[in-house]
Amino acid sequence: xxxxxxxxxxxxxxxxxxxxxxxxxxxxxxxxxxxxxxxxxxxxxxxxxxxxxxxxxxxxxxxxxxxxxxxxxxxxxxxxxxxxxxxxxxxxxxxxxxxxxxxxxxxxxxxxxxxxxxxxxxxxxxxxxxxxxxxxxxxxxxxxxxxxxxxxxxxxxxxxxxxxxxxxxxxxxxxxxxxxxxxxxxxxxxxxxxxxxxxxxxxxxxxxxxxxxxxxxxxxxxxxxxxxxxxxxxxxxxxxx
Length: 241
Prior knowledge:
- The chain is an all-alpha fold.
- It has one domain.
- The protein has 12 helices and no strands.
- The protein starts with a helix and ends in a 15-residue tail after the last helix.
- 20% of the residues are buried.
């Protein structure tokens, strides 16, 4: 019996963009929706929010898109601030230690306070996405020897660069690895050809030929190279903070 993620992936391959990015985006939306509408008063969730010092920058700002649930955001933020205030007030600080003026301004004192404020665990939403991301990529790899998965990959827009890099080490069969590499190379070559066509048409004002599918190729190229804007950090990996 195939996992639900198998069928989700086959469906996602028929849509634009990286299928793993698309499913992770939906997972994040579901998590944040549940967080605000069902779990704001959950003790375990509040403890996790305290330990993680709130959500990461990306997912914290994404909360603001959920209109009409300011109270839920307030409850979770209050728990995090209560934790931070408690930590600051429980820190005796350099003044209470009777140190000299040089000790008061030493780097070590500030470092200790900063360490106390550091997150004890990662963003709750990122943690979920880490698990589901690994599941999606492993599911593709586990079923890549099968015709439906190969065909879905072949006719799709492929994986984004960050996810393709994570995917290829999961293929232990050299023949399947070569198949995946060839398929992804053809997908990227097609996109590159569209970019070249876009540049020819946008640069040559004399032509009256209308833009076709290549009209948004420059946007699709960003997604293909960088992945979804809400999933990866500056170095191409997802940050917990």
